[in-house]
TrEMBL record:
Organism whose genome encodes this protein: Georgenia subflava
Cited Gene3D superfamilies: 3.30.230.10, P-loop containing nucleotide triphosphate hydrolases
Name of the protein in question: DNA repair protein RadA
One cellular-component annotation, GO: cytosol
GO molecular function: ATP binding; ATP-dependent DNA damage sensor activity; damaged DNA binding; hydrolase activity; zinc ion binding
Amino acid sequence: MSPTPTKTRPAYRCAECGWTTAKWVGRCGECQAWGTVEEAGAAPSSLSRTTSALAPSAPARPIHEVDVEAARARSTGVGELDRVLGGGIVPGAVVLLAGEPGVGKSTLLLDVAAKAAAVSADVSTRGSGRPVLYVTGEESASQVRLRAERIGALDPHLLLAAETDLATLLGHVDAADPSLLVVDSVQTIADGAVDGAAGGVSQVRAVASALIHVAKNRGIPVLLVGHVTKDGSIAGPRVLEHLVDVVCQFEGDRHSRLRLVRAVKNRYGPTDEVGCFDLHDGGISGLADPSGLFLSGTRHPVPGTCVTVSLEGRRPMPTEIQALVAPSTLSSPRRTTSGVDSARVAMTIAVMQSRLGVNVAGSDVYVSTVGGARAVEPAVDLAVALALLSAASQRPLDPRMVAFGEVGLTGDVRTTVGVQRRLAEAARLGFTRALVPFQGAADLQAVPGLTIRPVENLGDAADAAAQAAATGAKQM
């Protein structure tokens, strides 16, 4: 009696996360995306199919006998990128760097490739160096050569290839046996064995899988450039983020030189570190101390300014808040903000009017940060309130004072995270006074050269700021 043939039924797969279902639905049951479920071919309906066992190539070993030296992170030569990656890049790791067009992704990775090539050149003098391979699919080799010359990234151990075919790219890897592979970008490479244009869901999945296979088998770290959609998410299937080891987001305003790199996913290190870079005409360079970009540099008293210390991940970032209160002839006065949360500024203005009696209802109010910094965490509320009070009264604050804390609707100053790190950064920059929330202040450690003043509410903070301004004026 012949066996009954296994019946098949259509299978449908989500293009974003890879979730499968037996029937078509308009919305993915896993990632809740609309219109991403499409037919993926036929799948057997029988659940009794099994896979025969194979003998392993090597027996399983006790975990304490596994060698960890091969997985040690190695420096990329760029300190700020090493900070984000957790000390460097691990051999065999696949890093996806995503960002908007023109933010500086290619410039950063070309600089990383040149520094890695320089290290390889030093090793090659001892007879064991391997080159660095940079594959571009968006530009010609001559265009990349011009950028490398402009940023000083020319090195004989840096190999450059302009390819868009996956098979040819893998051939370059076989021929060069690089110590580092950079692919710019994963959306421009196509696999001839897979249907669809480059950048499509199936193509991106196939290219990423092939590059990850090469990285793991040969121990080659791979840096991939990824495009983003108009809403800021990484283009392509969501499964791409699950396949790679590290996902970094490259952020920056076109009108500012500052660029930030954040680790959204990191299998080898923390995800709350931030790398700061300065993008200029000569290329891109790391900023170990970015305070100069966010402080105006003036140390004479000016009404409407207050310095705070915000946190980007675990990194303290000093930021100067500037406020201006001007008479208005409009029936609805302006409320304009830049770099701060407009909703929290409006709430702070309402608390000032209700709890302190400061009336700015008939005035235009402008609040901004210096240098294009973004300070949107609640801890900057106190600095915003003090800057507004100073601007409304035309009385300058002490320029050597910092303030941070969340202002509640009752006017109280609530505690925030990372107060000790903020105080240490303020002291390092030469500030002598700090207004901090009263709650938790007893557990703070003393910081040399910094006078810490706990405040319970906004009125207490205004009095402390006035006293600090009077004391500072006498000392000047």
